[in-house]
């Protein structure tokens, strides 16, 4: 269950322009990156399309909670695809998950251009 502070941060980021969300996905504070990942799938897809690479980058974040928030957000925006990483995975599995998400995103971008 999210804490009150997390809920406030999520609500604040949700109301911000997409440029603030982009900066938040790159913030030095792990809690802010985690919140930005949670908020990402609640935005209109057309608004956050250009931020998907930033979200995928969080799959390899040094903080496990940020990685998990990024994975959950990607599962939502991909309509259920799940390339990981699973909690507790080693760095090779985490890197593999990032590659799979990047491959998915390349395919998705190609499909939407048709």
- Helix proportion range: 55-70%
Distance between the termini: 41 Å
Report the major sheet. none
- How many structurally independent domains? 1
Q: What's the order of the H and E elements?
A: HHHHHHH
Strand content: under 5%
- Overall mean confidence score, pLDDT: 92
Helix/strand/pairing category: mainly alpha
Question: Would you mind describing this structure in some detail?
Answer:
The protein is 67% helix and 0% strand. Helix 1 (4-14) packs across helix 3, helix 2 (18-25) packs across helix 3 and helix 3 runs parallel beside helix 6 (64-77). The protein has one domain. It is mainly alpha-helical and 114 residues long. It contains seven helices and no strands.
């Amino acid at each position: 269950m999210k804490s009150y502070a997390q809920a406030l941060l999520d609500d604040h980021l949700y109301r911000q322009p997409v440029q603030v969300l982009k900066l938040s996905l790159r913030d030095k504070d792990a809690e802010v990156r985690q919140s930005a990942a949670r908020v990402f799938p609640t935005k209109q897809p057309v608004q956050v399309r250009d931020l998907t690479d930033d979200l995928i980058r969080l799959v390899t974040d040094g903080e496990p909670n940020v990685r998990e928030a990024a994975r959950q957000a990607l599962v939502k925006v991909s309509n259920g695809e799940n390339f990981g990483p699973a909690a507790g995975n080693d760095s090779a599995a985490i890197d593999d998950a990032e590659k799979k998400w990047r491959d998915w995103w390349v395919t998705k971008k190609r499909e939407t251009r048709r």
